[in-house]
Specification:
alpha/beta; VC0802-like; Rossmann fold; 2 domains; elongated; binds adenosine-5'-triphosphate; binds magnesium ion
Length: 390
Amino acid sequence: MDSVLIRYHEIALKKGNRRYFIELLKRNLISAVKDLGIKEIRSLPARLLLTFKADYDTEVLIERIRSVFGVANFSMVERTPRDIEILRDRILESLDGSRFSSFRIDTQRGDKTFALKSPEINRQLGAAVKNQTGARVNLTNAELTVTVEILPRDAFFGFNKIAGPGGLPVGASGRVVALISGGIDSPVGAYRMMQRGCRLIFVHFHSAPYLDQTSQQKVRQLVTELTRCQFQSRLYLIPFGEIQRQIVAAVARPLRVILYRRMMLRIAEQVARREKCQALVTGESLAQVASQTLENMAVIQQAAQLPVLRPLVGMDKQEIIDQARRIGTYEISSIPDQDCCQLFVPKHPATRARLADVEQDESRLDIEALIRLGTTNATEEEFIFPAPAR
Ligand code: ATP
Ligand code: MG
């Protein structure tokens, strides 16, 4: 099978922007498979058709398309001439040896000038399949669906649908900065925003040389994994140890975590301005840890002008873990590391910080200088998927 038929749902609903969404989806699909010998991409009503030169690894292709947001589902399909007899013979040949008890034929006639109408095509092909295999026709719950597309130049057939990730094509909803630790939550939060069409710029704060480099290594691996969905990522690594040291020198223990978080947001916001991003994303989930009470979230949020998006806010830890497993980040996140926020903080941080107290503590610090310390010492790394050929 040398082609893939791609179906999209949600983008089809966005009437005014449809063309823009489809262009983005096409561009993203091409990025996802560009090293697999893609020949052409055609727009059909509510579908896209990708044709390949040949000789690609089907499993790799399926895995690639599975991570392109905006794809509702897809089928591997084969091209034939527009001749019902050839089509029938090719379908029967492909089904030779496969076992199924019920089936249906689903024909879309993209070319309305074709001599036979869809129900007639379904009837003729259905009779042939039934005759060869002995399987029953079942229109509502078939074990096997044979997809047929009649187009102006050629025809295609394929079997069954493979689920895509749904959502919107990356880029459709704008750019956001994702704050990513080495933990379980923030990669899942980042993924959920990508699924809603955001392109992410990643920011990680590390406490080297006070702590080891594991968190940076983990974040590189996490960003590599997430880049499968957006093809190109930039990661800002920001040294945070010296900033923490200055906070520790000026501030009593209970509020330190809140001050760390507020500094992270301020610095991330500088990155967002530079990268033309419209929001910040965190992996916070309500009441999961002491720093994530409503009171603390409110006080932390007020350090930033841009909206702070928290896609996991209403999720249970178990739901987050399950999703982390599905998207391939759980294993990486589970590698033990030293989290920068555990540096110089008490076991029981304040759960109900008050803005006035926090601002009082911050008045002892040169906040602007601390922001500059973060931004000027930041380093950038680029990630590309699929990896360019060496
Ligand atoms: P995670 O599992 O993502 O680490 P968490 O449940 O441990 O989250 P916190 O440690 O309170 O929660 O962090 C809350 C959020 O703040 C994180 O989800 C992340 O978005 C951001 N954050 C925390 N530490 C860092 C860091 N070192 N670099 C970048 N962002 C961070
Ligand atoms: Mg954490």
